[in-house]
């Protein structure tokens, strides 16, 4: 038997997305967001949902672009800081010592030290309630060159963070359980 938890914002895994934008003065800014994921295959799109109160919200509307940098486990402090400090009050790059890198593809910065980056042009946005969903068309995906070699999965080399909304904490990715599109082939229809 299952116990009802009610209508809550819980799903697993929940990503740790560091959203990069330029503000109206051209200052690079980042914020950590957990509400998001792939939203379309063709064209390739990713979505993030932000509250209007965030500094990043208005920057995306002005620049029509954003990036998503995926932090590795060894940057958990910086990723958390990006979610608790506001770009209105502090230069987050200066505070953490991380490097804003200007995208060559879209009008937004990404975090140079983070191993995986998705560069997006704003396709559309939809106000849902407290949050607005921003859908970005993926224009490029970048990964640290050193991580493109090897036999294991890219996710094992990146070691991205995962957020747990029910017990606010960060986790790492565990080991592979089984190959996709293979494990289910062992089931024979009755």
UniProtKB/TrEMBL annotation:
<feature type="domain" description="Flavin reductase like">
    <location>
        <begin position="9"/>
        <end position="163"/>
    </location>
</feature>
<protein>
    <submittedName>
        <fullName>Flavin reductase domain-containing protein</fullName>
    </submittedName>
</protein>
<dbReference type="InterPro" id="IPR002563">
    <property type="entry name" value="Flavin_Rdtase-like_dom"/>
</dbReference>
<dbReference type="InterPro" id="IPR012349">
    <property type="entry name" value="Split_barrel_FMN-bd"/>
</dbReference>
<dbReference type="GO" id="GO:0010181">
    <property type="term" value="F:FMN binding"/>
</dbReference>
<dbReference type="InterPro" id="IPR052174">
    <property type="entry name" value="Flavoredoxin"/>
</dbReference>
<keyword id="KW-0285">Flavoprotein</keyword>
<comment type="similarity">
    <text>Belongs to the flavoredoxin family.</text>
</comment>
<dbReference type="Pfam" id="PF01613">
    <property type="entry name" value="Flavin_Reduct"/>
</dbReference>
